[in-house]
Each structure stands twice: as C-alpha cells, then as structure tokens.
Write a structure and sequence with these properties.
heterodimer, A: mainly beta, 4-stranded antiparallel beta sheet, 0% helix, 59% strand, globular, B: mainly beta, 5-stranded antiparallel beta sheet
C-alpha cells in the first residue's frame, strides 16, 4: 500500500515563526502536492512538484514556499506564519494523472 | 479546462436509506473521475475511480458510481446507508493532459439512526 506520512498531526505556532511541514511518500511517485483545507472552501492547491527540484505554484502560493530535494520528500514552508494560515494542511502524491494518495493531514494553529 | 460541481454541501439520510451524492464535471478531453472520502480529522482516501473502462464503477464500502457522458455526471450511490458512512465526500476530475486534479467543494453526508 502507498503510504504518505506527514511530520505532525497537530501543530501550534506563534505569529511570525518560520514553520516547516514535511511530507514523505514511499511509492516513488513523481508528483507531490500541498493543499490547505478550510470549511466551505474545499481543497485549495498551494504548490505542486512533478520532479525533484521542480515546483509550480498552485492557486494560493502567497506566504508559502516549498522544497523538494529528494523524490520522496516534499516540504512546505511558511516563511512568517500568520493567523490566517491557521488551517488543515494535506499532502498528496500521485503517479502521472492518476489518483492521489493523501497523508493524514496537519492541523496548524497560528496564535 | 476542467471543473467539478457537487450539488449540495450537506446530504442527510436515515440509516438503511439510499445514498446519492451528485457530481457533474466538465472536461475538454475524456476525463478520469474519482470519488474520495474523508473521515473526521483524517486525510482523503480513494473510494473509486473511472478511467475509461466500465462505466459502472464499484468501490470500497459498498459504494458505486456511474459515468454518464451524455449528462457529464458521475454520481455516487450506496443502496443502504450505515452510520459509519458519515463523512465528507469529494468528487475530482483530471485528464490525460494534466496531472493536477480539480476537486469539488465536497458534500458532507449525515446519517441519522
């Protein structure tokens, strides 16, 4: 079975802190994605990557950056956390245009 | 371009009743279609997928969906709801030209005893 893991299930950070969310997949998938999920808004794509060191902006990249140094690992970085980044963050991976496999999510609270 | 519309942000059924969650899509090329389920405080998991084989697709937990090209629909059904089916359900579409799926906004299924 494909496994996607995220570094934390729950995280509480202060405004202005730099925050790292890490995601690891074990199925050699080329594509990896970061979404945020908010009530009533569904899933919104922040960034995605289709290969090592490659990244593309999604629909809401402002305030975020990403890093993909190894194929299995995709990190989301909040350079200076703000309260409006309080959300559920979901990582996913996929092979080509097929189904995505999601991690369990990180519920981030910024105070 | 591709898009997905899920009709109804909330659907409420009684235990044992038919479940019907609606999904309509638009895609400029033959689509791949997916239904995902999300239980509280968890990530999404794949329920079923359509990738141009049989139009009636069976998934996990007794769910199935039918691809109807003429209606551009991919509705999700289950003959008899169970309390454990209470969750958020997402329809998604992707096509061969893009590996970025488009998700619907989700439908919350509420099951009453």
């Amino acid at each position: 079975d494909v496994k996607v893991t995220q570094s934390s299930r729950y995280l509480v950070k202060r405004t202005g802190e730099k925050v790292f969310l890490e995601c690891v997949q074990d199925m050699d998938h080329e594509n990896m994605f970061w979404y945020r999920q908010d009530p009533g808004l569904g899933l919104r794509l922040i960034y995605f990557s289709y290969d090592v060191k490659m990244k593309e902006k999604g629909d809401i990249p402002e305030g975020y950056s990403v890093s993909r140094e190894k194929k299995e690992r995709f990190s989301l970085i909040l350079e200076s956390a703000s309260t409006n980044q309080t959300s559920m963050y979901l990582c996913a991976s996929s092979l080509k245009s097929y189904e995505q496999y999601f991690g369990p999510g990180t519920r981030l609270t910024v105070t | 371009a591709q898009s997905v519309t899920q009709l109804g942000s909330h659907v409420s059924v009684s235990e044992g009743a038919l479940v019907l969650l609606r999904c309509n899509y638009s895609s400029s090329v033959p689509p791949y279609l997916f239904w995902y389920v999300q239980y509280p405080n968890q990530g999404l998991q794949l329920l079923l997928k359509y990738t141009s084989a049989a139009t009636l697709v069976k998934g996990i937990n007794g769910f199935e969906a039918e691809f109807k090209k003429s209606e551009t629909s991919f509705h999700l059904t289950k003959p008899s709801a169970h309390m454990s089916d209470a969750a958020e359900y997402f329809c998604a579409v992707s096509n061969g030209g893009s590996y970025i799926p488009t998700f619907g906004r989700g439908t919350s299924l509420i099951v009453h005893p």
